[in-house]
Design goal:
This protein is an alpha/beta fold. The protein is built from 13 helices and 13 strands. The strands form two sheets. Strands 7-6-8-9-10-12-13 form a seven-stranded mixed sheet, sandwiched between helices. Strands 2-1-3-4-5-11 form a six-stranded parallel sheet, with helices on both faces. The protein is elongated.
Length: 331
């Protein structure tokens, strides 16, 4: 099978470095394999990669000078993670970087010896990536997203902006731990907000469209949508946002990029910062430290982002209390 290397458009020296160049550069050339959860042309994926490259550059790691980088982009497709993990490990990099828990698990199952740093993984201990946050053990460490308690906050926020919502569709990926655990947390919190939860799968665009359309038919201005932060949801964000607008469904998202591209409101942690931080762990491991000794760090700073134009389009009068709390309001 012919493998096509991925070049990162618009990032200058960040283009993937040919593996053959290692022989020409001598012992100084180190290798980094990166398994991304989004598509290669996804602006969010590019922003995460840019943060990684910026962090590495600040620490003296320059692509083409003393490090080569090879990418695989899974585009939220659960079937691709294992194959791409095997391809990256076959290239014999010094270290692997994973976007999220699913990518990290695929890499860890492929190699228990190559160091792995993940960025943005949910529940790394429960998912088997680390023995504990303080002492991860093994060959894997990184930067985690908070666990599932935020599910109740999403419902609370939805009820604040859409008090009549009693039926809530949850866009979840049943193939990943984050999707299963996130739905369970929302279902647990649902009775306290007097809402009925309906899960909608994200296997492909057709499943999402069928699910949201069928859900919308059964609502009478009492529906809403919650979209947790999973790779599949982010990959299909334009479709989800368009369907929510078409059916005038107020929607709460788990990551800012939904709102900056037209979604209503989001509450979640910064998805870019873990990539800058991951560069620091890559640097330390390339200089001799072991993943087992580097604690898993969990993001703790949340941001609330609101799109007022979208609120008006779906007929919502956002309470002043929400506007005051918002970290960013898009007019």
């Amino acid at each position: 099978m012919m493998r096509r290397r991925t070049f990162i458009a618009g990032l200058g020296s960040s283009a993937a470095w040919p593996v053959a160049a290692r022989a020409q550069q001598g012992a100084r050339m180190r290798g980094i394999g990166v398994l991304m959860s989004l598509a290669s042309d996804d602006a969010e994926g590019q922003a995460r990669n840019a943060a990684l490259l910026q962090g590495l550059g600040g620490l003296g790691w320059i692509v083409g000078r003393n490090v080569w980088m090879e990418y695989r982009w899974a585009a939220g497709n659960s079937d691709l993670y294992r194959r791409y993990a095997e391809e990256l490990v076959t290239l014999a990099p010094d270290i692997l970087v994973a976007s999220g828990a699913t990518a990290a698990i695929a890499l860890q199952r492929t190699s228990r010896t190559v160091p792995i740093v993940f960025a943005g993984a949910t529940d790394p201990v429960g998912g088997g990536l680390a023995m504990s946050l303080a002492r991860p053990g093994g060959n894997t460490t990184g930067f985690a997203l908070p666990e599932y308690g935020v599910g109740g906050k999403w419902l609370e926020l939805l009820k604040e902006v859409a008090p009549r919502a009693t039926r809530v569709a949850v866009i979840r990926d049943a193939s990943v731990t984050a999707g299963i655990g996130g739905l369970a947390a929302i279902q647990t919190a649902a009775p306290s907000f007097r809402v009925e939860v309906s899960p909608i799968g994200t296997r492909d665009a057709d499943e999402i469209e069928r699910g949201i359309t069928a859900f919308a038919r059964g609502t009478n201005e009492n529906g809403g949508v919650v979209v947790p932060n999973t790779a599949a949801a982010v990959t299909h964000r334009n479709l989800i946002i368009a369907l929510a607008a078409q059916h005038r469904l107020p929607a709460v998202y788990g990551v800012r990029v939904f709102v900056t591209t037209g979604g209503l409101i989001s509450y979640g942690v910064d998805t870019i910062d873990p990539w800058r931080l991951a560069a620091g762990y890559v640097d330390r491991i390339l200089k001799g430290e072991k993943p087992a000794d580097l604690p898993v760090q969990v993001s703790t700073k949340y941001e609330l982002v609101l799109n007022k134009k979208t609120a008006k389009a779906v007929g919502l009068d956002v309470p002043q209390a929400v506007l005051v709390r918002a970290d960013e309001v898009i007019e």
